[in-house]
Design a protein that fits this description.
By secondary structure, this protein is of the alpha+beta class. The protein folds into two domains: 67 residues, Arc Repressor Mutant, subunit A (Orthogonal Bundle); 158 residues, Chorismate lyase (3-Layer(aba) Sandwich), CATH 3.40.1410. The chain contains seven helices and ten strands. The strands form three sheets. A six-stranded antiparallel beta sheet has the order 4-5-6-9-8-7. Strands 1-2 form a two-stranded antiparallel ribbon. It has a two-stranded parallel ribbon with strand order 3-10. Helix 2 packs across helix 3. The longest helix is centred in the first third of the chain and has 17 residues. It is elongated.
Length: 238
């Protein structure tokens, strides 16, 4: 076992040495390519990359790849793609997630939410308010609203345990596209209390509108994110 740990560390050190000239956020070669380069099994590469991720030296996003990270450990890097899967992003840093549900139930007659979700007057909206914790530290407050007509049985789901994205997928309504607005705000007393920060402390807020494959609005979410624990990056194509 000690010998294996030494091998994983050596491979991890080699990866950082060989690809240290990459810019922050650039993608490392794939696992198969790295396995061939260092003449080891792919499982060895996976374990070595996992250990680097735990140290905050790389970011691993399922289905996309592994990205070099040079920022300070303990700060989450939120990209425009990563916003689609906040929980997966936090887990990629080796952080244990806990969800605390503040509100879960049906709202009717709220013109603001009806407008955001493209609903007719009086159509019911399911509200889900949660605090997302990482290693027992509050990181994000999520105010999520869904058109109830698309999600039968939603009131019987315990979203402390069931990922919202998985439930939406089970109903064939997982968002395929998001429109996202981002701004910097000072926290109001309620949000400051839940995030355990002073009133007027700075935070990021992301307003996200999700569309399913048919172009229907299936989600409106406001995320309040601690700015002292996160950084935001966006990728553009010229």
């Amino acid at each position: 076992m000690k010998r294996e740990r030494g091998l994983y560390k050596r491979i991890g050190d080699r990866i950082l040495e060989d690809f240290g000239e990459l810019l922050e956020g650039e993608m490392l070669p794939g696992e198969r390519t790295l396995a061939e380069k260092y003449s080891v099994k792919r499982s060895t590469i996976q374990y070595a990359l996992g250990k680097l991720a735990e140290k905050g030296l790389v970011v691993r996003i399922r289905g996309k790849g592994t990205y070099l990270r040079k920022s300070s450990k303990g700060v989450l890097n939120i990209s425009d793609d990563a916003l689609k899967g906040t929980a997966e992003l936090i887990r990629s840093y080796g952080v244990k997630i806990k969800n605390v549900v503040l509100v879960s139930g049906t709202v009717t007659g709220n013109r603001f939410l009806e407008s955001k979700l493209g609903l007719q007057s009086g159509e019911p909206v399911f509200a889900l308010h949660r605090v997302r914790y990482g290693n027992n530290e509050p990181l994000i407050i999520e105010y999520t609203y869904l058109p109830k007509k698309y999600f039968p049985g939603i009131e019987g789901i315990d979203f402390r345990m069931v990922p919202l994205s998985d439930f939406m997928r089970s109903r064939g309504r997982r968002p395929e596209k998001y429109n996202i607005k981002f701004r910097f705000v000072k926290l109001f007393p309620k949000e400051a209390r839940y995030l355990e920060l002073p009133v007027d402390a700075p935070a990021f807020i992301f307003e996200m509108t999700g569309f399913d494959s048919g172009g229907h609005i299936v989600e409106y979410t406001e995320n309040y994110v601690r700015s002292d624990k996160t950084e935001f990056s966006i990728t553009t194509k010229l």
